[in-house]
Amino acid sequence: METPVAPQKKIIFSGIQPSGTLTLGNYIGALRNFKKLEDEYQCIYCVVDMHAITVRQEAAALRKRCLELAGIYIASGLDPKKNVIYCQSHVSGHAELSWILNCFTYMGELNRMTQFKDKSAKHADNINAGLFTYPVLMASDILLFQTDLVPIGADQKQHLELTRDIAQRFNGVYGDVFTIPEGYFGKVGSRIMSLQEPTRKMSKSDPEDTFIALLDPPDVIRRKVKRAVTDSDAEIRFDPANKPGVSNLLSIIAALNDQTPDQVAAELQGQGYGKLKERVADCVIATLEPMQAEHKRLMADKAYLQGVLDENAQIANKMAMKTLRKVQRKVGFADRGR
Ligand code: AQP
């Protein structure tokens, strides 16, 4: 079942952390775009478990979520014969390149990262060095595969810019070693907001009622959407600055139906927020139900999922080694006898 790697195609890399149950934000901002790209590009999708431990995880739960996330990649429609779907910790090149790139990244650059500031505030009892150097590991993930395009949500834009800076700095010293990657952002929904605090992004490690999980059953989805924060003026209008809650709900419908939020607002003109929420729940359930059924089927066949991860890790490893060996030579590491 070897995944054919198509070297003539441009490379896409993206990863998702198995740090909780994936949310509708992860789906709209990242996953949903992955499927659209699988024919045109050679895509590499990683379960980034090494990133996940920057925040304390329970070992058994993390292990389970790694397999669950691989299942979600496949259930969302990604063909594991066309896409390289694997776990980050199975390819040692991520850690090895990360060390080298740490030596080409400045403290001042990492100090500016807003995700570090946000996560340090959220996890004040565990502000570890990994949390600080997370963007360097992310740069390594991307640069290891000579990635051309990175489909991500807007929250990761700053990390991608840093990746480009690190790559350019390295290339400036050693010649054209790394491809300089570009971001790929969906037209709508690159930042889905929390249902309870719509000025903050929806996150899988926040409290349950703030997000829709991809594996939430329909009744839970309806209940969460019903309780979503809106405002008191009852007008359905897309205006993120003044009406963040309503605008977020419009963005969700728009992203799932390939419309613009203004189009959705026009269709729902004159109707109440109750109707808007009903529409959101219907769209979300219609999108997630088939994926959930497929995911359930896959999770019942863990040997198959493990097989996909094992084989794809070998392919990813081969690809990663090409870049890693080149980088190691450039920086002057000792030659290997064989
Ligand atoms: N709310 C969001 N809207 C749009 N895109 C989003 N992404 C995350 N949240 C939203 C995108 O999903 C991809 C995977 O994200 P990640 O798991 O690697 O890390 P994250 O961005 O830190 O996601 P979370 O859900 O907020 O995780 P936790 O709570 O563990 O930190 C990325 O492309 C991201 O942009």
Describe the structure in your own words.
The structure is a single chain. The chain is about 55% helix and about 5% strand. The protein has about 350 residues and is mainly alpha-helical. The protein has two domains: about 10-185 and about 300-330, Rossmann fold; about 210-295, Orthogonal Bundle (Tyrosyl-Transfer RNA Synthetase), CATH 1.10.240.10. The strands form two sheets. The chain has a three-stranded parallel beta sheet. α4 (about 95-100) packs parallel to α13 (about 300-330), α7 (about 130-145) packs across α8 and α10 packs across α12. The longest helix is centred in the C-terminal third of the chain and has 30 residues, at about 300-330. The model has no long low-confidence stretch (mean pLDDT about 95). Bound molecules: adenosine-5'-tetraphosphate (AQP).
Please give the structural blueprint.
Elements: E1 11-16, H1 24-37, E2 42-47, H2 49-52, H3 59-75, E3 84-87, H4 93-102, H5 107-111, H6 114-122, H7 129-143, E4 149-151, H8 157-174, E5 182-184, H9 218-226, H10 244-257, H11 261-267, H12 273-299, H13 302-331
Parallel strand pairs: 1-2, 2-3, 4-5
Helix pairs in contact: 3-12, 4-7, 4-13, 7-8, 9-12, 10-11, 10-12
Adenosine-5'-tetraphosphate binds next to helix 1.
